[in-house]
Design goal:
The chain is of the alpha+beta class. 17% of the residues lie in helices and 53% in strands.
């Protein structure tokens, strides 16, 4: 039987993201956020990042809330012409964490009622 390793609930999120190098805030590329939780997320991108790389991720939740999060690449997988990355949050403001928590709860509630 499969056992979930994640400590937080994760919700789907087809949201465009911008990726930056945190220290200099240099733009590195873009990607598509696949899912998100209060502790991390995963996304697809054409860009190549290595395990342990720190990234600054920028995206909009609910088409109105700007989210900026620092994270570390904790896993990577090639998917056809793209790369899929697992990110563990390193730094996030309390307000951003709360918005993500509400987003996850709302999205999972919607899925529960879809037939």
């Amino acid at each position: 039987m499969f056992q979930e390793r994640r400590s937080a609930l994760r919700a789907p999120a087809g949201i465009e993201i911008e990726i930056y190098r945190p220290s200099e805030k240099i733009y590195l590329g873009k990607g598509k956020l696949l899912n998100i939780s209060s502790g991390g997320l995963n996304f697809l991108s054409e860009e190549i990042f290595f395990l342990g790389t720190h990234l600054l991720l920028k995206f909009i939740l609910w088409e109105k809330f700007l989210i900026l999060l620092s994270g570390e690449v904790i896993w990577t997988r090639r998917e056809e012409k793209l790369h899929r990355y697992g990110i563990k949050f390193i730094q996030a403001e309390i307000l951003e964490k709360e918005r993500i928590r509400k987003y996850v709860h709302t999205e999972l509630s919607k899925e529960k009622y879809i037939l």
